[in-house]
Amino acid sequence: MKIGFFDSGIGGITVLYDTLKVLPNEDYIYYADTSNVPYGPKPKDEVKKYILNAIDFIVKQGVKAVVIACNTATSVAIEELRSKYSIPIIGMEPAVKPAIEKNKDMNKRVLVTATALTLKEEKLHNLIYKLDNEHVVDLLPLPGLVQFSEKLEFDEEIVLPYLKDELFKFDLNNYEAIVLGCTHFSYYKDMVRKLVPSNVSIIDGNIGTAKNLKRILKEMNLLNEGHGNITFYNSGIIVEDKAELDRYNRLFKRMDNINEYN
After folding, report:
1. 8 is an annotated ligand-binding site residue
2. CB atoms near residue 225 (< 10 Å)
3. Residues identified as active-site
4. Which of 5, 64, 155, 191 has the smallest number of Cβ neighbours within 10 A?
C-alpha cells in the first residue's frame, strides 16, 4: 500500500523530499490540486470543499496513510478528515513550538510566515496562545512565494526584491527565528538565509512531519513495503506527460540545491 501526499500545489514536494530520506522504501502518491491553487486567498468553505474531494480521491487509491503536506489545508480541514477516515491523517502546522523553544533570549522575537488563510485560522492562533507566553510571535503573510514556486520561479533577481520588501518591514536583528509556515516557502530557504542575520534560525516543519509519519507507521507495523516510487496526480488526473514529470523532477533538484547551500 502507498502513502498519499496532498498539497494545494507543488509545495508538498518539499515535505515528500524529506520523507524520502526518512522512508526510502515506501511507494507514494502525490496529489497536487493544480486546478485550484493557491488556497490562501480563497474563502475557507471553498478551500475545504477542494480538500475533502482530493482526500476522498486519494483514499480511494488504497493508501495506508495520508500526509496533508499543506499548512493551510491542515488548519482548515484536519479534524474533519480525521473523523471521516480510519487510516492515519498526518497534518502540518507552522513550526511555532520549536521556534519558541529555540528562543532562549526572551528579548528576541519569532516571525511566523504563512499564507493569509493559515494566519487567520483559529488553529494557529490557539497554538500561539498556548505557547507564546512572552508574546514574542509576529505574523507575516508571503503569498508571493506561493505564486513564484507554482511558476518554478527561483531566479534570485526576481524573488529577492519581494522577500526584501516583506521581511525588511521588521528589524530582523530583533529576531531569534523565522518560521516557514507554508510548504511552498521551503523552496526559498536559501534566499531567506541571505537576507537575515546569521544568528537567526530558519525553521520549517518538514522533517518533523516525516519523522512523525515514520513513527506512526512503525507503531502500526506498516513500514517498508515499496521501492520509493512516486505516482503524481494533478487534481485527480494521473501525470504521464514527460514535460510535467520533468517539472516535478526540477523541484526535487531545487531541494538538492538548497541542501547543498545549507
Report:
1. yes
2. 13
3. 70, 182
4. 155
Residue 194: C-alpha distances to residues 33, 181, 244, 261 (Å):
31, 18, 30, 11
Using CA atoms, how far apart are residues 209 and 67, in angstroms rounded to an integer? 8
Distances from the Cα of 202 to the Cα of 95, 194, 198, angstroms = 10, 11, 10
**Taking residues 139-159, what's their average pLDDT?**
96
Do 242 and 230 share a structural domain?
yes
14 annotated to a ligand binding site = no
Same domain, 179 and 220: no
229 is in an annotated binding site: no
CA distance 1 to 3: 7
pLDDT band at 259 (very low <50, low <70, confident <90, very high): confident
Do residues 116 and 197 share a domain?
yes
> In this model, does residue 225 exceed pLDDT 90?
no
Domain tally, the chain: 2
* Listed residues 188, 203, 218: the one ending a domain: 203
Confidence of residue 101 (pLDDT cuts 50, 70, 90): confident
C-alpha cell at 218: 512503525
Element (H, E) at 31: strand 28-32
Residue 241 known to bind ligand:
no
Q: In what order do the strands lie in the sheet with 230-234?
A: 89-90, 65-68, 3-7, 28-32, 230-234, 237-238
Q: Do 77 and 103 fall into the same domain?
A: no
Region of 101 please: left (phi>0), alpha (psi -120 to 50) or beta: alpha
CA distance 239 to 243: 10
